[in-house]
Amino acid sequence: MAIEDFALMLLTGLVALFLVAVHAQDDQSGFVSIDCGLPQDANYTDAITGINYVSDAGFIGTGVISSAVSAAASQPFKTLRSFPQGTRNCYTLRPSPGKGSKYLIRAGFWYGNYDGKNQLPEFDLYLGVDYWDTVTLNSSSPSSLEIIHVLSSDFLHVCLVNTGRGTPFISTLELRNLNVTMYATTAGSLQTFARLDLGSTSTRPIRYRDDMNDREWTPYNDIANTTAISTSLDVDSTKVFNVFRPPSEVMKTAVVPENARSGLSFSWEAQNLADQFYVYMYFAEVQVLKPNQSRVFEVDLNGELWSGPFAPAYLMAYTVYSPAAEKTRLSYQVVFTQNSNSTLPPLLNAIEIYKVKLILSPQTVDQDVDAIMNVKSTYGVKRNWEGDPCIPQANMWDGLSCSPDSIGTPRIVSLNLSMSGLTGNISSDISGLTMLQTLDLSGNNLSGQVPSFLSQLTFLRVLNLKGNNFTGPLPHELLAKSKDGSLSLIVGGDDKSTSTGNTSDDKKKKKKAVAPLVASILGALTFGVLVVLLIVWMVRRRKQQGPIAKIESQRMLGKEVALELELKSQQFTYSSILKMTNNLKTILGKGGFGTVYLGYKGDCPIAVKMLSPSSVQGYKEFQAEASLLVNVHHKNLTSLVGYCMDGHNLGIIYEYMANGNLANHLSEKSSQNLSWKKRLQIAYDAAQGLEYLHHGCTPPIVHRDIKCTNILLDDNFRAKLADFGLSRIFPVDGSTHVTTVVAGTRGYLDPEYYKSSRLTEKSDVYSFGVVLLEIITGRRALGENDYIHVSKWVSGMLDKGGIGLVVDSRLRGDFNADCAWRGVEVAIACVSPQPTKRPTMTFVVSELKECLMEMMNPPVVQSEDSTRMMSLNLHSSLNPIPR
Description:
The chain is of the alpha+beta class. It has 14 helices and 46 strands. Mean pLDDT is 82; it is low at 1-25, 500-537, 539-567 and 858-883.
């Protein structure tokens, strides 16, 4: 068989499979079509479009149903739902497929003077917690807003927000599942700006079934100095594989210039300079050309060649589109120019223009949303429980408290349903709120036995069940947690459950009297156990002959235990500490296990970190940091000056870093701004220190708490890593990870480590990637008033405009653009969700070193670079990112 024949067979087979997939959509399985205001359980098939509509009653619990007045309204617009109560009312949908799927989302509105006021309202529409657009209306016809959006969650919230300019309402809400390869852009969301069917004589938009994706193609014939041409034959979008699949009815018509020499052109205006657009143009030859005729043309956008020259094929749809967002400007002009060898003028069948819409805010974790929605349904909760449970914070559901997890995703940590008239058993759906710390179900009419699954909520610290009608014994696991103090269990009132003992006033008094004594005994025992364990650990470490942990332990007279470090000359008494610090007068900051004070050893300033007497965890951190500083030395790690182990007074003395920590200098409150060169040098210094811990020590050391506050700057702004209290040493058996209790700082904590407790060197690499992004952008890892992680913000800004929008604006453009691109590429690779795709610190050091070498040339201001686009996502590999 010839290769050409085989290729033809293969192509035919692929086309056949594609057509099967196309026809599989005829059942509208990828559609969600909601007629807002339709009575509950009602549904119908629209006679015009053939689309099946259902009531919105199952998607929202607020609002008032009304009928449209206009007799001209089509069936989906004859009813609507308005929201005279509340500022924010939300539809909650769970389309299938969910997370990661791409949808065309369309909201329809037709005022029709339904309320008799004849005043058009204006209000805002939100997708999740992000602003979508402001709804402005035409009283005599329907209006709609569209957006193409990739779901970041299994849940989708569409919210109407009252802005004080009239009562919000909605007529239809429609979702259309799209092929993920359609309208591909890392921007994530594209808002429809225009979708035009040129040369059409139709009196209504082309929709389903002509377009199996139900896009609305608006007939448009207002391009000046053009004339329409058409065909009665079908135009095929499958013979030449076209993922956009423009409908044949749209492609049958086109416009051409009346005067071939004048060409064909059209333009549009941006609302502001920050707007970014994607353009999709559709071409098909609809005339049978004679042998001596040809139609060849090229397309220019704002004076630059955009595509071509090319000749559209007869009755075959061809799409030319933006691979990245077009350069920002206030006006855009497209010009079609006839090629010198062409006998016919250019044509255009259809066009789509989309505006980039950044939808960045993370939604509450699906598991929590699932659980709380089920709780709402089970108990029929009537509160302001609309939209996302946790965000925005101003609209957090009543009775809930939320907190971001290690990567900034909101989690429900407190649920208060006291005095809510709840009946029946405690819902098992509560078990899905795995991050709950407080649960208050008091003052209801709950009955049955208290379920044992409550004891499986790992983080639960307060459980209030008082004032219900429970029967039977309390679960043994809950009683055990109550007795060991890990859970405050409150029962009593009308319930008949077996008491835990903490509801008796007498026992409470006894408990209060005994508590100080018990605490003292436990404190002494804990301290003793820690010392014994430390001695055993040190002996084992010395047998391994590693360079770390050469701390000697010995028992002193009486009950006092002191740990002596090898370097006797570096040991200081507590009285000398007081003298050096002027009685601990000047506080420099607060560290992991205590307070840091300014002191002087002679004329040389020093920093003295003293352990808080009440910090048991701090005692462990003191041991770790002391052992590491004694035995590990590098120019980019803080140096040990001495230590204090005088009775219960424990402290570490290290070199004073005159310019404090990096976080203070990146803060907007900082009086001086770090230059671009200083930022690169700091990043390089910190990377070298971390590389030494990973690759210069045997066995390797993982810092576990890399963040800007733990990067200190000397008087020349050279950086050193500090605060080694959480550091962990890898075993000498060649293991690639150790399993530990998760520790670190929110925003910098490796998501994979957080989920698995498996600590690797790549956990530090993730944290350093976040630090590098902070250095470049001047933004915090997580903002104070939002949950947007700096990595997500950077990705969104690059999609929107380029490197100029990412680099800290306080630099006023005084930076090297190539270095900035390289720095961002390295940082994004570091924060890859997959540890195996993160680089080593050796690679990071090499890249940053090259950046510094480039700085031998004067900084280059590249104003035009703000329009360069970079295709970027958080799953980037180590391959260079295209610029």
